[in-house]
Structures are given as structure tokens and as C-alpha cells.
Amino acid sequence: MGLACHIAKIHSEASVEHNAWELKQYTEELYWGSGKRVMLLGHSKGSVDAAAALSIYWCDLKDKVANLALGDIRALEDLTYEKRKEFIMKHKLPYEQIPLVSFHSKASVAPCIEYSRAATLFIK
Length: 124
Fold this sequence. Notes:
Blueprint: E1 5-7, H1 16-34, E2 38-42, H2 45-56, H3 58-61, E3 65-69, H4 73-77, H5 81-90, E4 118-122
Helix pairs in contact: 1-2
């Protein structure tokens, strides 16, 4: 395809705002280093982080980003405060009646360093 792939080294457990800042910085670094617009490809929380980077830093990134590739946009919409509140009110979690375990997946490039699954691609 003629695309160079770069994985953004952001921590999946960091806040969306922090990762949005990291993605902004990385996108600008790739853009200035290549002179080419960047395509953001997000997976899992990386989709939320990438969308947040564009939402928060649109004025800085609008000329540097070619597009944003995500899964189904409804997945992002379901993470909005209003949608989550509506869902939680409608579907109560029986947390008092069943043991609850919380975990996350990770993609590691190096031992002990966790990265969000957001990739940044050059457009050729």
C-alpha cells in the first residue's frame, strides 16, 4: 500500500486527555519529519484517544491529519456520558450478587510497558 506504520507509545491506562496530548505531539512529529499528512488508526481505547486528540487539538492538527479510522462510530457514541448514564440506569449491574473482576488487555512492545492500541500511519 505504500504506507509506513508507526505505533504511538501511549499508555492505555492514562487518561484520554493525556493520551490525546501525546497523540497530538506524535502526529506533529511524524508530519514535520515526513512532510506528509498522517492517518490515525485507533483500536479499543486508542480510538477514543485518537478521536479526542482531533476534538481537542483540531486547530493544530487539521492540516496534518488526512483521516481517522475507527471501528463502528456507535462504539464511541456509547462511551459518552449521557449514553453511559442512560444505559446504567436502564441496566443495573448486579454487583452485590456476583463477584466482580475488572481487567484490561494490553499490547506490549517491551517488557513492563503498556501501550494503547492506537497506530499512526503515513499517507503516501
